[in-house]
Structure formats: structure tokens, C-alpha cells
Amino acid sequence: MEASPSSSQSSQPNTKWWVFLIVSLGTLSVALGITSIDIAIPTMMSSLGASLDKIQWVLIGFMITRTVLIPSVGWLGGRIGDRNLFIYSMAFFIMGSLLCSISWSADSLVFFRIIQAVGAGPLIGVAMSIMFEAFPAHERGLAMGLFMTGWSIGPFFGPLLGAYLVENFDWRAIFYINIPFGLLSIAAAYLILPKKKAEEKGIPFDLLGFLTLTGGTVSLLLALSQGQEEGWGSQLIVGLFSAAIVLLALFVAVELRSANPFIELRFFRSLNFSLSNFIIVFRVVGFRGTNFILSLFLQKALHYTPIQAAIFLVPGAIITGIVSPLAGILSDRMSPRVPLFLGLVILAFTLYGLSTITIWTSMGTIFFLIAVKSVGQSTINAPLNTVALGTLPEGSARMGSGIIGLSRGLGEAFGITILTFLLERYTFLNIDSMTPLQGARLPEAARYEVLSQIRSLLLHGGEFGTALEDRAQSLLGFSLLNEAMTRAYNDLFLLIGAMFAGLIITVFFLGSGGKTAVESSTAH
Questions:
Q1: pLDDT in the model for residue 116
Q2: What whole-number distance in Å separates Cα of residue 13 and Cα of residue 22?
Q3: Quick one: DSSP state of residue 436?
Q4: Percentage of residues in the chain with pLDDT exceeding 90?
Q5: Distance between CA atoms of 98 and 141, rounded to whole angstroms?
Q6: Whole-prediction pTM value?
Q7: Measured on CA atoms in the order 479, 484, 486, 487, is the torsion positive or negative?
Q8: Residue spans of the chain under pLDDT 50
Q9: Domain 8-202 sits in CATH 1.10.357.10
Q10: CATH architecture of 272-432+495-524
Q11: Burial class (CB within 10 angstroms; exposed 0-12, middle 13-18, buried 19+) of 453
Q12: Domain-by-domain residue ranges, the chain?
């Protein structure tokens, strides 16, 4: 096997810090481009005259394309080299951003977002691989901590910048904010990253593996994204899930028999690698789910504007930037299980705390819980990536990063879809038990007393006659609906906290070794 690229880079102490700068600029560019668009969806609908069914493909098309292309980083990097793959991926992403800014219809915007995703797919995996191999073995926990710092800042600042640009300029401006960082990263990568010969020019492309994985993943993601709208028991959704199962099973069979697989499934013979990816999927579900629910709570229950809600979450970026490298250093100096355990315990207790908040909870308490959540989240990121990649043979970081990226993409899709469904379900159950207008389990005496107080307030406000009674009933229903949704948020926070508590058990099964099984399996 060819010597690891780290062998040459680690001998030049300054190189790793230049690599960190290049990778951070690139990942920040992609993260800003991904997270700033959500806030602009309503404005895009009005500007382009598009329905919600049409405009949602701006998000769904990007998510599916990026997730499908993430595993390609292994083969592409071997063919053209990590440096070239990073530059080309970044260039594709920037080109897609520019094209999105000149979209003339919803269809053109969806198409240009797919071009963006073609660049974003391999980029994060190859960036992680470059970062991992630029640092010597005893500093790779630090490398993963620094990598997560650059990648995690985008989700905090992206929505804030996006909201500001949409409110003060135009939705097209959100596609410009990532371009300067992307161009700088391309220029620095071209000048600084060492040129290396492609490692695997003679290895053929595993077309059957790629097609079965792509078909299975697209079917799964389409089913997850459209299940709520079409109905989980509908013929379309059941068919998509069935196709996903068949194609992914065929993919596994093909890859295990292939001499040059598209994804090296034999890596999963390592317990460390398998458990790390298992934790990564549910970590992303919890991360995206918690941020999604918090954003809704701040805007729907507390009536914050999008900018106010985004500002409220910004300090988490500072915490992430500080804690992630420290967690990486800690995992270098002792077993990565220690920061993993601590981070999951912090998250479990924090989510329990979030499950108790109401509209009357002080802002200081909510802010404190969000800050502590960021500490827990930042504590587990670097050790997880270090354990997953550290268990692989030298020179396999690129393929391993692609698999980690696929796990992360599936976690994002599962997280938002499942939690959206559960939020609606829990809200409905709470409404059914609380709202007088839909079943009246509220005692009649309590209902009469509440309505009397509301009528009194409306009388002082100038309401009278039948309008007063209709208004009182409406306000009571609205108040109970708000309470039902708040309880649904609490239920979901508690569910996510229980998930993190369950992941604590898996940490005890992680070992410090694990390369032997992988090396022996990939040697044949």
C-alpha cells in the first residue's frame, strides 16, 4: 500500500495550519450556502410565483443529489487526487451559487441547486480526509476538532445572514455570501496543497455499485421527504420504500463481491467503525432535530422574528469554535470514549431541561440550556470522527470520510422527516385532549371560567355583541393550541434526550484498537 500522505505533510509543521485554513474556508463556504437558504423559501415562492410543492424541491433536490454523491469521494479522489477533487468540487459549488442567483423560474432554481449539490457532495468528505492526513497520528483528534469548528460555524451564521439579506436586499443575495470564501479556498488550495499523482488510475469505476446505491438512496430519501404529504401508507410511498430495500440489499451483495467496490463495506467489520457511524447517524438526528424544534419554539411559541431567533442561537457558534478543538485534544491525550461519554451525558441532561420549558420560562434559562447543548454537541464531534477514521488502514481516510458523510446525510434526512411527523402527531394528540372546540375534555366549569375572563378583557378592549363571543372562543382555541404545541416540543425534546442517553451505552463497546479486522479484510 502506498504511504499515507500524512507522512510527508506531518514532517512540515507549518503545512497542517495552512491546510486547516484552506479546509475551513471551503467548508464554511458550503455550510453558509446550505443553511442560509431555508429562511428565503417564502420570499422565493412569491418572487418566482411557485407553489410550496414546487419550491420544496429547491431543498429536496439539493439534499438528495448531495447525499448520493458523498460516497463518490473515495473513487474520485483516487482518480484525480485529493487536491484536484477539492478544487473542482469547490468550483462546481460556486458556479452553482452564481447560477442560482440568476434563476428566472422555480424549475431553473431547482436545476441550478442540483449543480450546487454536485460540488457539495464530495467536498466535505475530501476536506475531512485532507485535514485528517495533514496532521500526525498523535494530533488527529485535534485535526477533527478543528475541522468541526469550520463546518459547524455555518449553521449558526447562515440563517442570520440569510434573514438579513432577504429582509434588506433580495433573496438572490444569499447565493453571493459563500462565494468569497470559496474563491479564497480555491486559490489557496491551488498554491499551497501539494500536487500528488493520482493513486488509482487503473482501477475501474464500480458502475453497478454506484447505480444500486444511487437508486436505493434516492428512493429512500424521496419516500422520507414525501411521506408526510402523500401519506405513509400510500401506494407511492410504500413502493419507494420497497424499491429502496431491494436496491440497497442488491448494493450490499454487489459490493461484497466486487474487487474494487464503490464503497468499502468491509470497513464495517471493525466494531469501532460500525458503532461510530451508528452514533453519527443518531447524533445528526438529534442535532438537526433539536435546532429545528428550537427554531420553531422561538418563532411560533415566543413569536420571535427569524432574525431574532437566529441571533439567539449565534453564541453556540462561539462555543463550538472553542470546545471542538479542546475535545479533539482531549481525545488525543486519552481514550476518545471519555469526551464521547461526557458529551452524551451533557446532551441527555440538557435535552431533559429543554423538555421542561414553557412560554413562561425565562430567556436566561433557555439561553443557558442552548449554550450547554452546544458544549455537549461540540464535545462528541471530534472524538467520533477520530475513532471512525483512526480504526482504518493508513491511506483509507478518504473512503472512510465518504462513508461518514453518507451516514451524516441520512441522519439529516431521517431527523427532519421523522421529527416533523412526530411534532404534528403530538400536537394533534394534545389538541384532542385539551381544546374544547375539538372534543371538549376541558371541564365545563373550567372552560366557562376561562371564557369569562377572556370576555372581560375583550369588553375593556371595546369588543361587544356576537363579535365578542366569537373572539373569546377564538382566543381560547388559539391559547390551547399554543399550549398543545409547546407540550409537543417538550415531548420531542424528551425523546431526543432519551436517544442520547441510549447512545451512552454504545460508548462502552468502543475500543481503542480495531484496525486488524479491517486491514485483514481489505488485504484480500
A1: 92
A2: 15
A3: G
A4: 13
A5: 36
A6: 0.76
A7: positive
A8: 1-11, 435-441, 450, 453-455, 458, 513-524
A9: no
A10: Up-down Bundle (1.20)
A11: exposed
A12: 8-202, 206-261, 272-432+495-524, 433-485
